[in-house]
Amino acid sequence: MLACAAGSAFAQDKNLRIVIGFPPGAALDTLTRLMAERMRPLLGQTIVVENKPGADGNIGVETVKTAAPDGATVLIAPVANMAIFPHSRPADLRYDPVKDFEPVSHLANFQIALAVNAGVPAKTVAEYIALVKKDPKFGDHASASQGSLPHFFGVMFARTAGIEMTHIPYKGSGPALQGLAGGEIKAGIFTLPDALTISRSGKARVLAVSGASRSSLAPEVPTFKELGYAIEGYGWYAMFAPARTPKDVVDRYARVAGEVIRGAEMKQRLEQMGLEPTGSSPAELAAILRNDYEKWGPVIRASGFKPTQ
């Protein structure tokens, strides 16, 4: 008990450094800075956000892995670094998402969406599947990059629907969205906020979303599950601490992060960014991480993805 109390007091005496593996201006950076601003008065600590971009976020992850487990450093990372890369890029990783980190709190989800060019004669997922079976060229579909979560969600969808689909990776969301809007590619799988940017311009239609329930961003769009396709998947952001960080410190950060992320103003800001605020206990985040690791492994192996491609 004395050791835990000392650990908690020591953490409160220090600045809190929140590390992210992406540059300023990215969605994760915005989320992190909103969190830091609101956590400061609740924790009574100075909070510094440190960007460590590189290696698709892995530089930031490695920075926190090697930090002292004293409560002075935490990581906010996306699902890709913690549950996707261990399957898709194992040779590149110098960390173990389970052994090297303590789960703190799940912060926010974002959904994945299937969209088609406005000229495609399919207004439902069933119509799109029938179209692909009739003409496989309609199965050519874009995503922002190879090895991305939308790429692998497309693999999951094709397997469930019993169709052949060819993934066409673009170099970023912007070019992929432009390709779909201009008809260069007939379909695409994107994060829902990205898909809505062109569907609302009338240049594409969003046919379904990946969540357990419809998104407040597009309540008119059904989920794959409600249409009879037993698939579900979220992108997410979550907070982790170095392994062996004292439990009382982890619990304190989880409690404050949850309070902040569920606040009315924060909820409104995040929904404007296309994020669904959550907040969780460390145990709940550990279960989410474990479930997503087990979910995406078979999908990634089925895709035949190789990081050198």
Structure report:
This protein is of the alpha/beta class and 309 residues long. It folds into two domains: 2-108 and 235-303, Bordetella uptake gene, domain 1 (D-Maltodextrin-Binding Protein, domain 2), CATH 3.40.190; 111-209, Periplasmic binding protein-like II (D-Maltodextrin-Binding Protein, domain 2, 3-Layer(aba) Sandwich), CATH 3.40.190. It is 43% helix and 20% strand. The protein contains eleven helices and ten strands. It has helices at 2-13, 27-43, 58-65, 79-88, 125-134, 149-161, 173-181, 192-199, 247-261, 264-272, 282-303, and strands spanning 16-20, 47-51, 73-78, 101-117, 140-143, 166-169, 187-191, 204-209, 234-242, 276-277. Strands 1, 2, 3, 4, 5, 6, 7, 8, 9 and 10 form a ten-stranded mixed beta sheet that branches. Helix 2 packs across helix 9 (247-261). The N and C termini lie far apart (52 Å).
Briefly, what is this?
By secondary structure, this protein is of the alpha/beta class.
- CATH class category name of the largest domain: Alpha Beta
CATH architecture of the largest domain: 3-Layer(aba) Sandwich
CA radius of gyration is 20 Å
Number of strands: 10
CATH topology of the largest domain: D-Maltodextrin-Binding Protein, domain 2
How many helices? The count is 11
CATH superfamily of the largest domain: Bordetella uptake gene, domain 1
* Secondary structure: helix percent: 40-55%
Shape: globular
The portion of residues forming beta strands comes to 15-25%
Overall tally of domains:
2
Average pLDDT figure: 92
Oligomeric state as shown: single chain
* Structure classification: alpha/beta
